[in-house]
Each structure stands twice: as structure tokens, then as C-alpha cells.
Amino acid sequence: MEARAIAKYVRISPLKVNYICAEVRGKQVDEALSILKFTPKRGAKELYKVLNSAVANAENNLNLNRDDLIVKVAYANDGPTMKRFHPKAKGMAYPILKRSSHIGIVVAERE
């Protein structure tokens, strides 16, 4: 059995979050939470919230034991990109891409 949680439209680049996802993928849930708690990146805070939500879903909805849960899948996909423009010399415009991401975590019981 596996439980999942997804945070959509988070205003951080998926590239930045995926580096942190790689750190917690395959880890036991409590170990992953402690890694995220002490990681000094903004994406770690968002991942911490999503992981807590996935664990709560597993405990409350599927009656799984927290001690047996591992982070099976952790990902950050592209969300919509806000396009803005910054004026440059000679009347030109320079595009600014404000990226967002959809962060998801799947926790499952250890085999």
C-alpha cells in the first residue's frame, strides 16, 4: 500500500527542488524528515510539508504504521511559468521566467 501527497503551483524552480528530492528518495520517513528539517534550502521547507502530509495520509486513511514507511518516490515537475519582461537598452525587452513546480511524494511500506 502506498500513500501520496502533492503540492501544486509552488513558486520555486523544479530544478532546485529536485536536488533535495534526490537526498530523501529511498530513505525511512523519520530520517527523511530530519534531513529536510536541517537542510538550509527553501525547497526543503516545501518538501517537509508535503512529506508530513503523505505520512498523515498513510496513517489516517490507510492505517499504515509510521515506522515501516519509506519515501518511495519524490519528484518536482514543471508547473506553469509566469512570463515577465525587463526593459533593456535601445527599447528592447528581456524575458524573465518565474517558474513554478508541482511537488509530489509517495510513501510506501517497507518490503
TrEMBL record:
GO terms for molecular function: rRNA binding; structural constituent of ribosome. InterPro entries: Ribosomal_uL22, Ribosomal_uL22_bac/chlpt-type, Ribosomal_uL22_bac/org-type, Ribosomal_uL22_sf. Keywords: Ribonucleoprotein, Ribosomal protein, RNA-binding, rRNA-binding. The keyword Secreted does not apply. GO terms for biological process: translation. Belongs to the universal ribosomal protein uL22 family. This protein binds specifically to 23S rRNA; its binding is stimulated by other ribosomal proteins, e.g. L4, L17, and L20. It is important during the early stages of 50S assembly. It makes multiple contacts with different domains of the 23S rRNA in the assembled 50S subunit and ribosome. PANTHER family: CHLOROPLAST 50S RIBOSOMAL PROTEIN L22-RELATED, LARGE RIBOSOMAL SUBUNIT PROTEIN UL22M. This is Large ribosomal subunit protein uL22. It comes from Anaerosphaera aminiphila DSM 21120. The lineage of its organism: Bacteria, Bacillati, Bacillota, Tissierellia, Tissierellales. The gene is rplV.
